[in-house]
Amino acid sequence: MVRFSDLGISPDLVESLASQGITEPFEVQAEAIPSLIKGRDLCCRAPTGSGKTLAFGLPMIERTKPAEPKRPTALILTPTRELAEQIRNVLDPLAWKSGMKVLSVYGGTSYGKQLKGLGRGVEILVACPGRLIDLLERKALTLEDINMVVLDEADRMADMGFMEPVCSIIEKCTSSPQMVLFSATLDRDVAKLVKLYQDDPVKIEVGPKEISMDSMEHKFWKVKPYKKTEIAVKSVRRSGRSIIFCRTRAGVDRLGGEMQLDSIPLSTLHGGLNQRQRDRAMNKFTSGRSMVLIATDVAARGIDVEGVNCVIHYDPPDDAKAYKHRSGRTARAGHSGVVISFIKGNEQRIYGRIQKQVGIRKRFTDPRPEDLKKNDFKITKEEPRKTTRRNGTGSRTSDKPRRKKRGRGGKGKRGKGVANGKKYRNSSSKSNKSSNNWNRGKKKRGQRSGSKKRKADARP
């Protein structure tokens, strides 16, 4: 049996993995880690969920040098925010125990935290191409010290039009870094990256070349538009944990609102949400606090959630490739799953072409959600928030320290001779005089319109 220590991983890092219950490497890790530790370039085809994050992350932690402020020493490029956060969450505890910092940067969040993190210095930077280019233009960092670059989901970045930004970023790494490329498919765009930027790479292929359509049950239901939500509700009640794909953001929001009326515990996810909302939606779904995720194709790749029993194409995918990646969210790691496509009358030609391209042949039938396998799903209850309360003496008790109120100096009480940290006199005669001046000023303003503003006398 191969262990991480046999692959060249240091004892401290092996111990950190063991504390998380990770003792045996997956296939992609066993094949990739030895070459990466030696500094070789690598091109790997591996599906989502195969363990590739540790496959490149562990050698990166082993080889990465300490970083100076604004000068990271290792870079991971990803196509989506969700994948960037997923990678950071895996690597951060391991890197922290090795004395390194990991920072993720992507759009949809404020620049402040990211700028501060870069200013303090981080070794491993996980970035989406668009936000990284923005930060480079702001001169918030330089890539001159980068000694290892990982392109994760390279084919997805090509599909999303990131080829030009990715090339621009790589060319800013002036130190000739070790180049590592992971992709679910090795198509023409990925081959171009290999040819341009890799030097005699080690090539590894793990798992099937294509997402297997045979591991899942496919159903194509002819559904009238006004019946789609009703059929979706019945289907997920039978199937349990499910993902429903819509074509547009508005469609996701509309379907989410309609299904909530049927008391379906759900989360919605699309590119129009800010990062906090997207993180909350994914956390609810992965933790079991929601049973259904309604999403655009932003959730079609790079997201690995266990136990998804059903995928519903509420709206048709753009092409056969999108159908494969949407459907691939179920029937993972040897489990079974069902894929249901809702077909309006004018969409039969679209799905006929998709069936031919993905190599399946199924009849279009009337919907029968009652025939779906019944899967029980128990909702995980959210822990109640701790609230501030008053104890028997009338004072406040809370787990969080009480914030100091802004804009008050000294003891923070009025009329005690201190205001905003400055002392002043507070005699009764001066107070009366100030009050009289104020009243006279009010009368004058009422008598004469357009008069000049006068400075208000300071009142205690």
Characteristics:
460 residues, seven-stranded parallel beta sheet
Account of the 3D structure:
By secondary structure, the protein is of the alpha/beta class. It folds into 2 domains: 4-205, Rossmann fold; 217-371, P-loop containing nucleotide triphosphate hydrolases (Rossmann fold, 3-Layer(aba) Sandwich), CATH 3.40.50. The protein is built from 15 helices and 18 strands. The protein has helices at 11-19, 27-37, 52-63, 81-97, 111-120, 129-137, 154-159, 163-171, 188-197, 228-239, 249-260, 275-287, 320-327, 348-358, 428-447, and strands spanning 42-45, 74-77, 102-105, 124-127, 148-151, 178-183, 202-205, 217-222, 242-245, 266-269, 292-295, 310-313, 338-343, 364-365, 389-390, 396-397, 418-419, 422-423. It has a 7-stranded parallel beta sheet, with helices on both faces. Residues 387-440 and 442-460 have low confidence and may be disordered.
Which SSEs are present, and which pair or pack?
Elements: H1 11-19, H2 27-37, E1 42-45, H3 52-63, E2 74-77, H4 81-97, E3 102-105, H5 111-120, E4 124-127, H6 129-137, E5 148-151, H7 154-159, H8 163-171, E6 178-183, H9 188-197, E7 202-205, E8 217-222, H10 228-239, E9 242-245, H11 249-260, E10 266-269, H12 275-287, E11 292-295, E12 310-313, H13 320-327, E13 338-343, H14 348-358, E14 364-365, E15 389-390, E16 396-397, E17 418-419, E18 422-423, H15 428-447
Parallel strand pairs: 1-6, 1-7, 2-4, 2-5, 3-4, 5-6, 8-13, 8-14, 9-11, 9-12, 10-11, 12-13
Antiparallel strand pairs: 15-16, 17-18
